Amino acid sequence: MYTGVLSLHSFLRWVILILEIVVIYKSFTGMTGNRPFTAGDKKAGLFLMISAHTQLLVGIYLYLAGPWGMATIQNLGFGEAMKDPVARFYAVEHIFGMLVAIILITLGRGVAKKAIPDAAKHKRSFWLFLVALVIILATIPWPFRAGISRPWI
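RESULT FIELD:
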């Protein structure tokens, strides 16, 4: 079961990255083109937030039930886990970075509900989603990262 959930977690990464690009593009074009904040903009942000929160739930399961995460801290101890770059990445850096990114995505989605001008909605959501994307890209265990790599799918 762990392998299947890990595969789902890996697949959802691509869904989130694609949705991030879509909402950043929509926010950027709305911001620069002085376009109204439409229902499509709200839905794209909503789908991104739902996907990110689903990914969070799957990730929490992996963190608690898998060989990395909580098991690493319990087996090595927190101090030893912090000395090992691979253990530190999976036990602390990955989950912390993704939590921050999901909070930013949720805040970006919340901007759509505010009673502010459409230009301000586009600008705020653009920056929140962009920073979230940068954090996500930095904390994904890409296949080319030595020691912490995961397959593309």
